Amino acid sequence: MLQVYMPEAYKLEYRDVPKPAVEPGKVLVKIERLGICGSDIQVYHGKHKYMKFPVVQGHEAAGIVSEVGAGVEGIKVGDAVTFQPQVFCGECAPCKAGHINVCRNLKVYGVHTDGMAQEFFLVPSDKVIPLGKGTSLEDGALIEPIAVGVGAMRRCGDVNGKNVVVIGAGPIGNFAAQVAQARGAKVLVTDINPKKLALAKAVGIYATVDSTGKVLKDIIAEVFGAQGADIIVDCAGVPASLTSAIQAARPASTIAIVANFKVPVEIEIPLIQRQQIDVLGVMMYLKEDFHTASKFLAEGKVKTTGIVNKHFDIKQFKEAYEYIDANAMDVMKVMMTFSK
Fold first, then answer.
1. Domains in the chain with CATH codes
2. pLDDT of 213-266, one tens digit each?
């Protein structure tokens, strides 16, 4: 079978490797769709702080069950599925407390251990998420980033009736905003890219504002008035976004850091202390978030229209990254497809 192997930054090799033999308790899936996300791009550029080469990428995927190992229940050949891509120990203190997303030994498929950039993927059955009835394989591969938005909103607590600001209108910001609205929040999305803001508006976000040359605190006042923002969600991941969030935060409010920051950020601690702002670190998701993401998708509460900009065959992985680099400002999501 074909496998896309990355021995180092910017280098991809197409290898012919044996198809995995199915094992007890595991499921062999024929991969059909594979999304490229921001962390994948960081890996490709050699800028991901928590991985080491070599690696087989891929953690946003969907496919069809090809074989089922002994002892597997509730999954059958022919099922359309996606994956929870976290590998956790189950024994450390965070795992025992239910926080498997911050397991002390956490690995993620496609980042710390081989992922789904291959024709067949062998995976433990408990990491397989069946797709909802009528959900396409393309949307199935988008359930993972939707689950990031679900996990972020779960971390923020009950958002019903709250004013929520999402900084950054990329895929994660778009999905986080949609999830917040699905849970009853009034949502403002800011970005400096009018195309991404137009997409957020098209999927029904309450307010979208181009923040170019503007102060976030002023934008929030214009949209939400004296109440301000109950929650600010940073999905941009640049120093200026977090700095502006802290400066714009209302006393006794919350800032949730969802984006994958590439560099350390110097922040003004006294503003956080004196206004008693809760700053939440958000790391991925739990399995329940995948089921919620799938439900919201099936119910039309989260829409994927316009999220995927372009498709490439799996044998064009290098070309896909070149396209992303050449269109970095406007790309939302590139999807890899697998030849028949």
1. 2-142+307-337 (3.90.180.10), 149-281 (3.40.50.720)
2. 999 999 999 999 999 999 999 999 999 999 999 999 999 999 999 999 988 999
